C-alpha cells in the first residue's frame, strides 16, 4: 500500500521526517519496504500559459508555441504533443531544469530554437498506470487557472514522501489512512478520536428499496444522490489519488476511491437511471453473463455474489462493478453503495475470475463491519462539496451492528509471557493508545477490542500488541535457561535411511528426488491396495494435481527422461513419502515412507576388460535384498508370484515380511516400457516404515568361525513351474544346525530335459562353530536333505 506522508500528517501530530517515521512503523510491526521522495529528480519546472501555437515550418507534427511563465519575455518552445493548444495552463521545464533522467538544454528542432519543454505527467516520473486517460498520450493540461511561474512540485503535491507499506493479511485495518492513524497514535502516544457519530439525515424521502438474499452479505447501505454533474475531480483530489497509486477517473468515482483510502471501506457508484429503484444482493445464476468495468465478459457461477436490479446482475459483490450501470459523463443521478461482504465469498469470486481490485483486496482480509454508514456519510459530504447543487435522499439498507469483542487478561500474564516488568498503568496506556477500551480491576484487565481489529481474539494477541508498541528492542537479551538438557541425535529410522542411501550409492545407484504431485491417473498406478486419492483444490497444472501413492511413476518418468538423452544404463533409487487419503477432507492424509528403485540397461563388472551383464530380475532382487540383509531381516522375507497392472505377468512377485505384504518386485510390462521408449526395465518398491523398526530388528553379533566349512552340491529336476522358494524351504525344513547357507548357482531348461522339467543346482554349506566337522557327520545331514527333496518330488541327478 502506498501512503502519502503529507496526507498522513493531516490526521496526527507527527514531527519526525518520513524516514524516521518509516523506521518507527516498521519496528511497530508493519513493514515499510521503501520511502520515495516524488520530487527527488525534479527542479526548475513551473506553470506556464500557452499564448499562441503555430505549425512548425519544416515538421508537420511539431508546433511552435509561445509560452508565458510569468517572466518578462515569453519562451519559445517547440512541442510535438497532439493536444497542445493556445489558452492552456501547462507544465513547463525551463532551460536548466531537471526531470527524471533528463536535463533541459536550449536546442534547435528542425532549425527552430526551443527554450524548454512542455511536459506530460509521465515525464515528471509518474507511472502511466495512474495518469488520467485523457493525458496518457500528450501533455498535461490544468483544468483551472493557475498562477504563472509557480513551482509544479508544490502545485501537483510532488513535495511528498511516499511510504510503501507491506500489509500482512491479518492487518486489514492498516489498509486505510484512519487505520494507520490509530497505529501512529499508539506509537507516538497521541490520542486519536474521529468522532464517528451518525449524522441525523434531513434528506428527501427515497424510493430506493434494498434487500439481501444471500448469507455472503452482512450489511448493505444504499443512498441516492440526484442532480450531480460528472466531471474531472479538482486537482487536490487527483494528486492525492495519483500519489496513492490510483488513477483519477471522474469526480464521483474518485470520491469512492478517496473514501476507500481514507476509511478502508470499499464503495461503488451506480448510474441510478440505468438501475431503477431496486437493489437485490443475491447469489448469481449459473451461466449468467456480466461485463465488468474492465470490459471483460464474466460467466458467473452460483458461488458468486452479485448486486442486481431485481432481474440482472449489475456488479460482482466486493470485486468490481458492471459496465451496464457505469457512471459516465451523461450520468445525472447515482446510487452510492457501502457494504460488508463475506471475505471468503469475495476471495472465492476474485480467484475464480482472476480479477483483483483494491476493493477485493480489502474485503478478502476483512474490513470493519461497523464502518459502512460512516463511510457513506463521508462520500455524500464530499459529493456535496464538489456538486453543491446535488440533492440527497435518505439512506436505506440492512445494517447488523457487531459488538466489540472482549478479551480478559492479567498484567502478570503479560509480563510472564514477555519476560518484562510493566505496570498495569503502562499496559493500559499502550492498549488505550490503540483505542482499545480497558477496565482495570487490580491486575485483571478487561479489554474491549474495536471491530476494526478482527485479528484480535485471544489474550496472546493482546500480548503481541503490547510488545510491538512497547518495542521489541526493549526486551533484555538473555541466554536461554535449561533445567534439563537432551542430547541431540538422529532417530533409529533416520540413521537407517541415511545408511541405506549410502549403501545404494556405493552400489552404483543414483539417489533421486521426484515430485510428490503427479497426475490423477499416475497417482494410483503400481499400488497394491486401494486408497482414497488426495487431490489439490486448485492445482497449477493437471499433471501435478494429486499426491502420489507410489514412487514408481516418478522413477519411470526419470528413466524415460535419461534414456531419451542417451543415458541407457541406469540404476535409480528414491526414498520418499507417499500419501493415502481417508476419504474425509478434514483428516490429514497418512504419510508413509517408501524405498523404490528402477534398473535398466547393462551393468559393468570390469571396466578395463569392458565386461558387462544385462540387468535382469535376479539382479534387481539381489539389490532389493541389500535392505533386508542390512537390517538383519533376510531370514524373515519371502516372495510370492502375483500380478499387477503395468507389470510383466510372469516376472512379478510380492514381497512379504513374515506374513505381512510390504512391497513388490518385477519387470515393467513390455507394452508400458515400449510406450515410454524403454528396453527391459525392472523396479522394486517396499514400505520402509514396515521394515525399519527397532522392535522388528534385533542386531545379530556372531563370532567368525575358526573351523573350516564343507560344501556339497546338489543337481535336481523339478517341475518347470516350481518356484525356487519352495526348494529353499524344503532344505531349511531339515532344520539342522549344521546347515549355514543355501545358494542357487545354476538354472537350466531346454529340449534335452524331460518335458515340463527344469534343472536346478544348489550349493549347501555346512559348518560347526565348536569343532571341525567330519565327512561322516556332513554326509548324515546331507542324506536327510536329499531324502526331503526326493519326498517333495525332485529327481536327484
What does this structure look like?
By secondary structure, the chain is of the alpha+beta class. Helix content is 25%, strand content 30%. It has 20 helices and 42 strands. Strand 17 and strand 18 (297-299) form a beta hairpin. It is elongated. The protein starts with a strand and ends with a strand. The mean pLDDT is 91.
The main β sheet shows up as: 7 strands, antiparallel
Strand portion, in percent? 25-35%
The low-confidence runs, each spanning 5 or more residues with pLDDT under 50, are none
- What's the helix count? 20
- Class based on secondary structure composition and strand pairing: alpha+beta
Mean pLDDT across all amino acids: 91
Instruction: Using the alpha-carbon principal axes, give the shape.
Output: elongated
Radius of gyration: 41 Å
**Helix coverage percent of residues?**
25-40%
Distance between the termini: 89 Å
Q: How many individual β-strands?
A: 42
